[in-house]
Design a protein that fits this description.
Elements (H helix, E strand, L loop, with lengths): L25 H4 L8 E4 L18 E8 L2 E8 L2 E7 L4 E3 L2
Antiparallel strand pairs: 1-2, 1-5, 2-3, 3-4
Length: 95
């Protein structure tokens, strides 16, 4: 019997698919965010490092701090406030 996988990208075949026009530029990886800024979590499937859990895709949160190259985002999950650590290529500014 084969053991079921429990990796971070399980059940994301459609969720993390990129369209033909979804190109990634270097600017996306070098983007800076200030503390208190609102951001949208939009996962970049070509970059595996610093990827938040796919259940947070499409959620907005507030930048609380920075940890190395990654940002700490505060997101509401149900009634709880959760902190997510994500690289800048998985975040978009909300304007």
């Amino acid at each position: 019997m084969v053991k079921k996988t429990k990796g971070p990208r399980r059940r994301t075949r459609k969720k993390l698919k990129k369209g033909p026009k979804d190109k990634v530029t270097v600017n996306r990886f070098l983007e800076e965010f200030k503390e208190g800024e609102k951001v949208l979590i939009k996962i970049e499937p070509s970059s595996h490092k610093g990827m938040p859990n796919p259940k947070f895709k499409g959620k907005t949160g507030k930048v609380v701090g920075k940890r190395g190259r990654a940002y700490i985002i505060e997101v509401k999950d149900g009634n709880l406030m959760k902190e997510i650590v994500a690289y800048p290529e998985h975040l978009r500014p909300v304007r």
